[in-house]
Amino acid sequence: MPRPTTPTETEHQNELGFRVWHQSRTGMMSRPHTHPDIEVNYIFKGSFAYLHGGVVAPIEAGRFTVLWGGIPHQTVEPGIVNEGIWITLPLAWFLQWQLPNDLAERLLAGEVVSGAPDPADRVALERWCEDATSANPAQRRAMMLEMEARFHRLALSAPRPPRRREPNTGEGATQLAGVTRFIAQHYREPLTVQAIADDAGLHPKYLMRVFKKQCGTSIWEYLTRLRVSHAQRLLVTTDMKVLDVAMESGFSSVAPFYAAFAEHTRGLRPLDYRRQHRPQIPS
Questions:
Q1: Mean per-residue pLDDT for 256-279?
Q2: Does domain 9-159 have CATH number 2.60.120.280?
């Protein structure tokens, strides 16, 4: 069965997009990282834990576990020592599902949500790994419909899991969970560092320094990545003109949109991205 290449830690930092892949034993992450996606973790045996927004969150085998990758997260000793399947789903795609019981809000607030053990999950995830590499649009559409249904079941059934505080989280780790949630909820609006800092009750210079330290990127780079992700979804799922896509995604004009889009898609122009991806990803 074909398997997508496992993303490296650097690729998690820098790339956007939908992926399903088999995750090998990666051990410890060297530093906290972020990516503007909803992330699914499913390990085959054992367990590991993330330090996620300053809170320790256990990931147990056989559980369909979901988190918001926009919050800084890093594995706790000894890291990931067993195999599993991972998914990253751009936030803009996830939000359009309009899931019940405030699942999106729970994830953006920093909760890590796990479903009850279900042997059918591994069967589905293995199938999605194959579907994700398929050139058949119908097969990929079936995968996305199945995935949306699985998230709906998770939203209807998952309790709020207990989480415990880590005694040594690093400067600003817990505060940044609220910052990334605020940015994720308002990235399509005109935002300033001052507005983000005011919402968090932090000084702007302190916020910028801590954000860079914990997230490995600047606030503006993080904001831009979310806007590009939103634009990617609109290009693939609508017939909107490029100007309208840029405005709807939070860009003030076409020029910065084109520059940002090219930077985050290896030089692709928006219409090239639409032509390349529309036959493969369902609307």
A1: 88
A2: yes
| Residues linked to residue 55 through DSSP beta bridges, in sequence order | 52, 165
Under DSSP, is residue 28 helix (H, G, I), strand (E, B) or coil? Answer: coil
Q: For residue 49, list its beta bridge partners.
A: 58
- What is the CATH code for 170-220? 1.10.10
Query: CA angle, corner 93, sides to 90 and 99, nearest 5?
Result: 115
Give the start-to-end residue ranges of the domains of the chain: 9-159, 170-220, 231-277
Q: Which two tokens stand for residue 98?
A: 């309009």
The verdict on domain 231-277 having CATH code 1.10.3720.10 is: no
Q: Maximum distance among all alpha carbons in the chain?
A: 51
Most confident stretch, 17-21, 59-63, 99-103:
59-63
Identify which of 18, 103, 111, 34 has the alpha carbon closest to the alpha carbon of residue 70: 34
Buried b (16+ CB within 10 A) or exposed e, 192-212: ebeebbebbebebeebbebbe
Q: Mean pLDDT across the stretch 249-262?
A: 95
Q: What is the mean pLDDT of residues 42-51?
A: 94
